[in-house]
Specification:
140 residues, mainly alpha
Length: 140
C-alpha cells in the first residue's frame, strides 16, 4: 500500500534550496536538475551497476558490520518502483516535475498544521517549481 492510497500523496526526496538563495544557485540548478532526472531514468532502466555499488559500499564502507544490503532485494525494489508508479512520468512525458494540482491538494491537507512561524502568504507556487526541470527527460 502506498501513502497516496490513503490520501497523502507526498513528494519524497525533493531537491531544495533556501528561497533567499534560489537566484544565486539557479545556474547550478539549471545543470544539476536534468542530471538528476537522467540518473533516475538510467537507474530504473538498468539498476545493476548502481545496485552493485550500493552493495559493495555497505559491505566494505559505511555499513561494514552494521548495514547489509541484499542485491536481489535491491533488484526487486528497482523494478517495484516503476511497477507501482512510485517512479513515473506522472501525467505527462517528464520525470521529476511537480503536478501542481497534486501539490495544491497536499498543501491543503497540511496547511492546518502550520504554526505561527509559517509565512501566512505561503502558496504551493512559492514552495515548489518546475523551473529547472528538463521536460524532454522521462521514462520511455
Amino acid at each position: 500500500m502506498l501513502m497516496s492510497d490513503v490520501g497523502y500523496s507526498i513528494y519524497t526526496g525533493m531537491l531544495s534550496v533556501a528561497t533567499n538563495r534560489l537566484e544565486e544557485l539557479a545556474p547550478c540548478l539549471e545543470k544539476l536538475v536534468p542530471i538528476i532526472q537522467q540518473a533516475e531514468v538510467d537507474y530504473v532502466a538498468d539498476p545493476v551497476e548502481a545496485n552493485g555499488v550500493i552493495v559493495a559500499f555497505n559491505e566494505g564502507g559505511f555499513g561494514a558490520g552494521y548495514w547489509k544490503t541484499d542485491a536481489d532485494l535491491l533488484a526487486y525494489a528497482a523494478k517495484a518502483l516503476v511497477d507501482s508508479g512510485v517512479v513515473s512520468n506522472g501525467n505527462n512525458k517528464t520525470l521529476g516535475d511537480f503536478d501542481m494540482a497534486r501539490v495544491s491538494a497536499l498543501f491543503d491537507l497540511v496547511k492546518g498544521g502550520l504554526d505561527e512561524r509559517a509565512d501566512p502568504a505561503v502558496t504551493p507556487e512559492s514552495v515548489v517549481t518546475n523551473r529547472f526541470i528538463d521536460p524532454s527527460i522521462g521514462l520511455k
